[in-house]
Fold:
Amino acid sequence: MKTTSYLDTDPLGFYGEFGGAYVPELLRPNVEELDAAFNSYCFTEEFESEFKQLLKDYVGRPTPLYLAGRLSDKYGATIYLKREDLCHTGAHKVNNTVGQILLAKHMGKTNIIAETGAGQHGVATATVCALMGLNCIVYMGEKDIERQAPNVQRMKMLGAEVRPATSGSKTLKDATNEAIRHWINHPDSYYLIGSVVGPHPYPKIVAYFQSVISKEIEKQLLEKTGKTYPDKVIACVGGGSNAAGAFYQFYDNPKVELVAVEAAGLGIDSGKSAATSVLGTPGVLHGSLTLLMQDADGQVTEPHSISAGLDYPGIGPLHAHTIATGRAVSISVTDDEALQAALELSQLEGIIPALESAHALYALTKLELKKEDVIVVNLSGRGDKDMNTYLEKFPNL
Ligand SMILES: *Cc1c(COP(=O)(O)O)cnc(C)c1O
Structure:
């Protein structure tokens, strides 16, 4: 008898009550073709050897699992950092774009479109499009184009076209709307989604490509501790892809506590927050039924977080499911707390984290830790892109 897994979807792409593929009829063949191509191609030896080779030689994997000694002393537990910040392009996002670009190429697609918030996924997509010689259009909110100028320049230098999304709050949600609109008008293009969001099968595909993170953690932990699993895994959640990758091998092991950290912004009750699991209710956003922040009329509420990567009004359906069922605990961390954690890691360990990852680090102060606990914090990205914010917030360093 087959045992059920948190990672299983029903035939319509639902994790429990969340997920599905809410797309216009016109795009139905696209998502079905994508699912078929993923299932038939991504488990072949041909795909696996090419994917592994690129992850090794191009992305720089395996990323280290680093025992953070001074951080461990401070929090009274054994704390490891999974160093996704050392990936090519500076974050975990490239694991997924490498996988999806191989899939797109296999499907004969030559025009790639993507959405981006902070620009990290846009850069990771532009990077693999350059690598494969494919056309790349990235939609980005006008406001994000202004506040993330270096990443815009990177995408352009890599040969991508950056198109501004000028509707709504001019941020990630609006860029995603524009990308979906483009996809509807050009169904022959490949939509390369950057997180475990969107219509089925995207959440499944992105989680699978990111699962390399926890597959490496298992091997590395075995070497270092004699066990393949930790007591807790902590990861920040924007859409949820780095968390899904870090949790993947542990969803079905009840001995591992999964800690999902969301951005509380200025505070959960401040009206300026992105803590979707607390403030969200079920609704359809960007092709799936999930938890999202919305008003009584179903209008999406504008999120706020100091980190552009967590500034999203929804979470992926897999996370909505694991949080709703109690499998994962959700913790929210404010802008100021994340800044504090970023400064702390910089000065305790000599590692400047991305603001997103700093949210996960701050969760260490909110958990009850025991001396014998082995904790893995997924350090999703590096802080280079956030130096302007750090400069502004820490003027007296
Ligand atoms: C994009 C991003 C995130 C948030 O996205 P997820 O899909 O939730 O992982 C977190 N950290 C970094 C460094 C990012 O670039």
